[in-house]
Amino acid sequence: MHRLSYISGTGGAEVSLDCRSALAGTAAGIRGREWEYTIGYMSLSGVTRAARECSLSVVFIGLASADALRRLADRDMSEGTPGRLQIDGWSQRAYIAKAEPSSISRSHVTMSLTVVLLDGVWRRGHTVSFEPLTATQGGDEFLDLPYDLPCDLGVPSARSYIDVGEWGAAPLRFTIYGPCTNPAVRIDGNWYRVDATVPDGGYLVVDPLAVPRAVTLVNADGSTVDAFSKARRGEGLGGGEYIFQPASAGTHEVEWDKSFGFDLTWYEEEGEPPWS
After folding, report:
1. Which residues make beta-bridge pairs with 185?
2. Could you tell me which of 12, 108, 195, 256 has the fewest CB atoms within 10 Å of its CB?
């Protein structure tokens, strides 16, 4: 354990649980992993990772940190906005539902925190930016040969790729920048399309990890529009045109008409935070 913190779901305030004023040690209680399943005849069915409850022991040497964590955790619980536990860049949505002090003095308090981990997996995001093909890149000055030949160079191929790790499929989050109309991106045999106009200065966010999943248009003035109904969902998962389709592990070409730029975030998923 190197860095552990709780980040509030209402406002994003953060309390470190691995610092001079708070110490969670190895945080063994949140380190494990668990699958749910039903045992059949020589088989398993209903295999899934569900939310689970676990215990986390923390020593607060600075009592102000204990107060800050309590206030944030209670606010998140009462407002139904889960925070996140974050370990060395890996995070998971979580509630802190209970705190039971076991040792109290004027300078410190030891607590056992009951934590509900909601996602069943820990995630770490990797973001790659893809730029549009600009007029300068495609203009005559770029294409003209310094020789008197009957032809000039064409626009070079601008193939782009993304590496999605090696252990499993990865959810994909898109931030598409305007201006553009009906943006579409093809990755791993699937089209990600939204039938909407993104204005200049605005952007479109496709978020497969939001609860519920969301497609949101943000205008230049900061106002937002729910664009979920504008996103193509085709025949659902594996149908070839599903806006929330995860990409399989491996290297994939990223195809689009290059009239717009976008940021693409793919998420590693692990049953528990990696040990190494």
Report:
1. 192
2. 12
Which residues are registered as beta bridge partners of 96? Answer: 115
- How many Å apart are CA 70 and CA 77, to the nearest integer? 10
The proportion of the chain whose per-residue pLDDT surpasses 90, expressed as a percent, equals: 80
Backbone angles phi, psi at 53, to 5 degrees: -100, 135
Residue 141: pLDDT band with limits 50, 70, 90: very low
User: Are the C-beta atoms of residues 88 and 268 closer than 8 Å to each other?
Assistant: no
d(CA 223, CA 145): 47
What's the CA angle centered on 166, arms 85 and 160, to 5 degrees? 100
Q: Give all strands (DSSP E) within 131-247, no chain letters.
A: 160-163, 172-177, 180-181, 184-187, 190-193, 197-198, 203-207, 214-218, 224-226
In terms of Cα–Cα distance, which of 115, 102, 88, 125 is closest to 32?
115
CA distance 135 to 180: 15
